[in-house]
Design goal:
This protein is α/β, with parallel strands linked by helices. It has two domains: 172 residues, Rossmann fold (3-Layer(aba) Sandwich), CATH 3.40.50; 89 residues, Pantoate-beta-alanine ligase, C-terminal domain (Pantoate--beta-alanine Ligase, Chain: A,domain 2), CATH 3.30.1300.10. Helices cover 41% and strands 20% of the residues. The strands form two sheets. Strands 1-4-3-2-5-6 form a six-stranded parallel sheet, sandwiched between helices. A three-stranded antiparallel sheet has the order 7-8-9, covered by helices on one side. The N and C termini lie far apart (46 Å). It binds adenosine monophosphate.
């Protein structure tokens, strides 16, 4: 695997490969890689000739300075993991390489900007689109791989691609979970064993809704899930909502074929998100 730290070196490395009609895949990450990231990378390996994994803890998408400061950065471990799955290129730029001084970025994300993650993390999606657009321009991938774990982010990136007319195919990969159901996340390493047990209640609540939706109806199963979350004093829920997957508008009863349950909560000061698709029919 090649580790490349500058935009110019990465472009120079990729251009001859593109000229030889090699298919290029991009997996953007912030590092602290876990099996969730690796599933994206394996998917990329199966579809592309050359897989570029970027690791960049993007400051413009952090609305909380201490979250940025505490974000784990185990780069040696990450490099070894990437080597082990035969990733072709690790793009590892620093902040100065990615951002000039006083850069301005704003795109119209519509209601995605002010709903759910947008509401609780002001500016977050502007930062995400800013860095993802930069990565798209540098790598010019044929395919880019994102996780359903960040459901709203996938919608935001799709909108970015539409607005800026980026010629890339997005591949959305399913959520990887621990055996007990916890959605894997780089932030999980900040939880104690106790916190990890508490965190299981998030996916339990989502499962209650998913399983109950057809039998008891949505509102009853949502009440049961809310009760489970309320009973755990170590969980501070920011939002827990059942929404249409295309608009993220909240619904009270089953409408259409598929819905998505979204949750964000703090445990031991760590902000976790998760989601699950719900079949209504
Ligand atoms: P991050 O490093 O958290 O920015 O994540 C990089 C990519 O990995 C994003 O597209 C995430 O949605 C995806 N991802 C993170 N956690 C998981 C998971 N548990 N399963 C699948 N994909 C994930």
């Amino acid at each position: 695997m090649k580790t490349i730290r500058t935009k110019s070196a990465l472009k120079a490395y990729l251009q001859p490969l593109r000229d030889k009609n090699k298919t290029i895949g991009l997996v953007p990450t912030m590092g602290a890689l876990h099996p969730g990231h690796l599933s994206l990378l394996r998917n990329a390996k199966s579809r592309c000739d050359i897989v570029v994994c970027s690791i960049f803890v993007n400051p413009t998408q952090f609305n909380d300075a201490s979250d940025l400061e505490k974000y784990p950065r185990p780069i040696e471990q990450d490099t070894a993991l990437l080597e082990s799955i035969s990733c072709d290129v690790l793009f590892l730029p620093d902040v100065e390489e990615m951002y000039g001084e006083n850069e301005h970025w704003h795109i119209d994300l519509g209601s995605l900007e002010t709903m759910w993650e947008g509401a609780f993390r002001p500016g977050h999606f502007q930062g995400v689109t800013q860095v993802v657009y930069k990565l798209f321009q540098i790598v010019q991938p044929h395919y880019a791989f994102f996780g359903q774990k960040d459901f709203q982010q996938c919608m935001v990136v799709r909108r970015l691609v539409d607005i800026m007319q980026v010629p890339v195919r997005l591949v959305i990969c399913p959520i990887e979970r621990s055996r007990e159901g916890l959605a894997l996340s780089s932030r999980n390493v900040r939880l104690s064993d106790h916190g990890l047990r508490d965190a299981l209640d998030l996916s339990k609540a989502l499962r209650l809704v998913r399983h109950g939706a057809k039998e008891q109806g949505l509102s009853k199963s949502k009440l049961a899930a809310n009760a489970l979350l309320d009973e755990n004093p170590n969980i501070q829920v920011e939002y827990f909502a059942i929404c249409k997957p295309d608009t993220l508008l909240e619904v009270k009863e089953c409408e259409g074929e598929q819905l998505v349950a979204l949750i964000a909560a703090y445990i031991e000061g760590v902000r976790l998100i998760d989601n699950m698709l719900i079949d209504c029919q």
